[in-house]
Amino acid sequence: MMSLLSNCTSGGCGAKIGPGELSKVLAGMPVFSDHNLLVGFDASDDAAVYQIAENTAIVSTVDFFSPMVDDARSFGRIAAANALSDVYSMGGTPLFALNLVCYPERMEIDALGEILLGGAEKIQEAGALLCGGHSIYDKEPKYGLAVTGRLDPKQIWRNNTPVPGDQLILTKPLGIGIVMAALRGEVADEEAVQAAISSMQRLNKYAAEKMHSFPISACTDITGFGLLAHAREMAGEAASLVIYSSELPYIPQARTYAGDFLITAAAQRNRNHMGGFVDLGETPFALQELMFDPQTSGGLFLSVPKACAQELLSAIQEVESQAKIVGEVLPPQNSSILVR
Ligand SMILES: Nc1ncnc2c1ncn2[C@@H]1O[C@H](COP(=O)(O)OP(=O)(O)OP(=O)(O)O)[C@@H](O)[C@H]1O
Ligand SMILES: [Mg+2]
Which of 13, 110, 180, 294 could form a disulfide with 266 if both were Cys (CB 3.0 to 4.6 A apart)? Predict the structure, then answer.
């Protein structure tokens, strides 16, 4: 199989335009408002939500990126799991998806078939339908989905409504970006690469299904901006979040690689963006890097009342064994995020 990685310069969610730059551009956009548009891009949430009937809203999202692994089938699965994730993180159920394909004319067309089969597997696993797409030639391969789902408008899991007193749960291990950087540098341990690939391919569906019987205050998925920037978005103006650095789940080798400065430009962009908002305390450097590390198809990060946090964690751990309670919500403090 021809190398996907040698045909692209940056892959996965680490290639996202930085949060600072994105919000500058979006601030110049006209405001689109309508009483049926329950969540638009002004909220910087995971997906748009539009109400179409008293008890029904549609949730809509799009995501695509370049390969971060060489195996075409795996890349397809990862890109689709990542795109579907934003529907789960809003509390929705995926209904149907469209393929977005950019592919170099010089590359074998069979590899594209493999990418699309990987994506189709995940769409089937999600219980959704593939119903079309769009495909163009481009210098580098890119793949993703536009996904439409449904949800109950009274049960939207917004990303910025945590309640002081809540606890915070993270459902997948951190360190994906660091392990992928080590893979590109050809120094990654095979076990770490397999852990990263299976985590990226894993649908957030299973954790989300466990969450539906609990009063979730806020939820997002951890992607290119890293845990701390997503936490900052969640904190908003009405809360501060405490992150327990010693409780974070991560791929063990990723901490070693970070200690060896195998870090990414995207993580440094995330660190610079967070400068004034986070109090890192005495947190060791490698753990800091794990919290700034861009995740591709990362886990759900959610805020839930303390009274049911342990019960929800146990339920999620039945399907995501590495899920942990990683912090708590406080009323606003000097810093938006306090790492302890
Ligand atoms: N070019 C764009 N035009 C309009 N809105 C945009 C554009 N790019 C991003 N957004 C919006 O900015 C917000 C943040 O985008 P971002 O892609 O980080 O969210 P996300 O979809 O949750 O990320 P991820 O897919 O990595 O989980 C979202 O509301 C998104 O719709
Ligand atoms: Mg998201």
Answer: 294
pLDDT in tens, 265-283: 889 988 998 878 999 999 9
Is residue 62 within 6 Å of ligand 1 at its C-beta?
no
d(CA 292, CA 277): 13
Ligand 1 pocket test: pick from 17, 44, 156 the residue with the most ligand atoms within 8 Å of its Cβ.
Answer: 44
Give the separation between CA 325 and CA 92, rounded to whole angstroms: 23
* Residue 93 sits in the same domain as residue 130: yes
Give this prediction's pTM.
0.96
Query: In 61-189, where does DSSP find H-type helix?
Result: 72-89, 109-125, 176-184
Which of 135, 155, 175 marks a domain boundary?
155
Domain containing 304 — which CATH number?
3.90.650.10
161 lies in some domain: no
Same domain? 176 vs 325 = yes
pLDDT digit string, tens, across residues 140-171: 999 999 999 999 999 999 999 999 999 999 99
The three state secondary structure string of 284-308 is CHHHHHHHHCCCCCCCEEEEECHHH
Domain span including residue 50 = 5-155
Cβ atoms of 52 and 58 within 8 Å: the answer is: yes
